[in-house]
Amino acid sequence: MAQSPQLEELNERSREVFRRLVEAYLETGEPVGSRSLTRSLTEKVSAATVRNVMQDLELMGLLDSPHVSAGRVPTQTGLRMFVDGFLEVSDLSNDDRAKIDETVQSNSADVATLMDRVGAALSGITAGASLVLTPKQQEAPISHIEFVSLNDDKALAVIVFSDGHVENRLFSPPPGQTPASMREAANFLNSFAGGKTIGELRQVIENEISVRRQELDTLAQELVQNGLALWTDDGGGQERLIVRGRANLIGAGTTEVDVNRVKSLFDDLERKRDIAGFLELAEEGDGVRIFIGSENKLFSLSASSLVVSPYMNADRKIIGAVGVIGPTRLNYGRIVPIVDYTAQLVGKLISDRGKR
């Protein structure tokens, strides 16, 4: 990442004071005073000198004085500069790796169960709240489509996907449908379906129907449109946002203000109907991304941070995301490799299922 102009303005002493202060704050969650900082600095300077540096950093908007005490805490701007310019990401510990591996050890579970386990594991390991966006089954390319008549007012749409899974949906066909119109509709769809997802096929079919309206029987047109709508209406998707670990954000010593913030966060999550924005956060950049405070536009809660990473299928297409949310004083150096490893592992498991 490019260095911020503020970082370039700092001399070596100011950089070390800033870095040591933020590291101490992330470890303790408490305001950091000049006296404690002087003991950790490489250069031996007086507490008065450190206070002057801290005042300069405060004037730059990097530090704040939450109370009348001399202690300082990093602002959101300061945390962002620390993450971009000073953060040292540790290697994933053997213990954390083993816990994640154990969670997904059995690949026999269905995807929903697997994602529930991943969410619970992330929450437990990081002592934060986990967010897991499950993949849409409909994002897999289509292999074959059939319409099966069950009775006069019920039909079954059967879609076989390239990853091997099959979806069956009941729907009401247009009155007067015949076996011939059912076959015609299926043949029409299959002539375009190969290698396309439901969303991609929908766009192609809408264009083709308008161009070839005379070639298609009216009943077949309606079957095509009605059948595809089953997978493309707002309520038909299988994308789910799994949230685990609410209690982790309300620990010992939590104030009433903190409790209200956590409630606000989960209210945002629970009432959010369009969760595509969560995936968009991950898609905007490669690998793990960190959102601090109000940088996260999805939630009204400003005193939180989100560490999120996408995971991909065998075609290197982003199909979901995993993340951890917690207070802004998260241990970013430890959380980042956990989220990164989990995302890579989930992507591999999803890809391996598609090869079966």
Automatic annotation (TrEMBL):
Alphabetized InterPro entries for the sequence: GAF-like_dom_sf, HrcA, HrcA_C, WH-like_DNA-bd_sf, WH_DNA-bd_sf, WHTH_HrcA_DNA-bd, WHTH_transcript_rep_HrcA_IDD
Domain Winged helix-turn-helix transcription repressor HrcA DNA-binding, first and last residues per copy: 10-77
Alphabetized UniProt keyword annotations: Repressor, Stress response, Transcription, Transcription regulation
Superkingdom of the source species: Bacteria
Statement: the UniProt record of this protein carries the keyword Cytoplasm: no
Domain named Heat-inducible transcription repressor HrcA C-terminal: residues: 114-336
KW Transcription regulation (keyword) present: yes
Pfam families named among the record's database cross-references: HrcA (PF01628), WHD_HrcA (PF03444)
The family this protein is said to belong to: Belongs to the HrcA family.
Task of the protein: Negative regulator of class I heat shock genes (grpE-dnaK-dnaJ and groELS operons). Prevents heat-shock induction of these operons.
The protein, known as: Heat-inducible transcription repressor HrcA
Organism: Sinisalibacter lacisalsi
